[in-house]
């Protein structure tokens, strides 16, 4: 009985050490599994679901020079830091989200194809999912439609962040790695 009382009287110290340990190991794990923005291409999406890890692994099979990793995130990942998507290089957005986030998107310096999203005469989104036909890029990794709430289903577009470090001449950044990753994403089934 004495031992139990002694342990319980020190319980607050054990809990404190447990919390300190969890924070320390979380910091170490983050440092080991991440890299600087200059060495990674980040993709954010607001699609209903995305297989983040498997898509990142597939896109990392052939990385552009100077890039060490690809991070794929859903917008819900940024629930506690709403500025995170602003640091993305590539965004996969629904049509309504493109219009909502137009201020952070770069016009795309390509000729628009049928179905691409043109706003005020500038191409802002390359269609990756067509709602009418049900066809889309990387469908093995993205779920583009809601099953329960079909009224929320939309077309999805690939867009580029105007502040990306990887869109080359469009904003004067050092490389065009986001284009290379976007091309690979568009060719995935």
Q: What are the salient characteristics of this protein?
A:
2 domains, 21% strand, elongated, single chain, 7-stranded mixed beta sheet, D-Maltodextrin-Binding Protein, domain 2, 189 residues, alpha+beta, two-stranded antiparallel ribbon, 9 strands
In short, what is this structure?
With 189 residues, the chain is of the alpha+beta class.
Give the termini distance in whole angstroms: 64 Å
Q: In CATH's first tier, which class of the largest domain applies?
A: Alpha Beta
Beta-strand content estimate: 15-25%
Proportion of helical residues: 25-40%
CATH fold descriptor of the largest domain:
D-Maltodextrin-Binding Protein, domain 2
Number of structural domains? 2
Folded structure, characterized:
- This protein is of the alpha+beta class and 189 residues long.
- The chain has two domains: 2-31; 36-187, D-Maltodextrin-Binding Protein, domain 2.
- 30% of the residues lie in helices and 21% in strands.
- It is built from five helices and nine strands; from the N terminus they run ααββαββαβββββα.
């Amino acid at each position: 009985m004495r031992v139990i009382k002694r342990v319980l009287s020190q319980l607050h110290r054990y809990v404190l050490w447990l919390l300190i340990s969890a924070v320390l190991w979380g910091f170490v794990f983050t440092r080991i599994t991440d890299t600087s923005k200059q060495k990674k291409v980040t993709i954010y999406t607001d699609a209903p679901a995305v297989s983040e890890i498997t898509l990142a692994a597939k896109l990392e099979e052939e990385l552009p020079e100077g890039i060490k990793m690809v991070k794929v995130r859903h917008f819900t990942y940024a629930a506690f830091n709403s500025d995170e998507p602003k640091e993305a290089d590539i965004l996969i957005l629904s049509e309504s989200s493109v219009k909502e986030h137009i201020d952070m998107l770069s016009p795309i310096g390509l000729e628009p194809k049928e179905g691409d999203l043109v706003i005020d005469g500038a191409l802002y989104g390359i269609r990756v999912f067509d709602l009418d036909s049900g066809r889309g890029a990387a469908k093995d990794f993205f779920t583009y439609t809601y099953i329960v709430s079909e009224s929320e289903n939309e077309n999805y577009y690939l867009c580029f962040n105007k502040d990306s470090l990887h869109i080359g001449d469009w904003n004067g950044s050092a490389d065009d790695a986001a284009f290379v990753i976007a091309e690979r994403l568009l060719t995935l089934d």
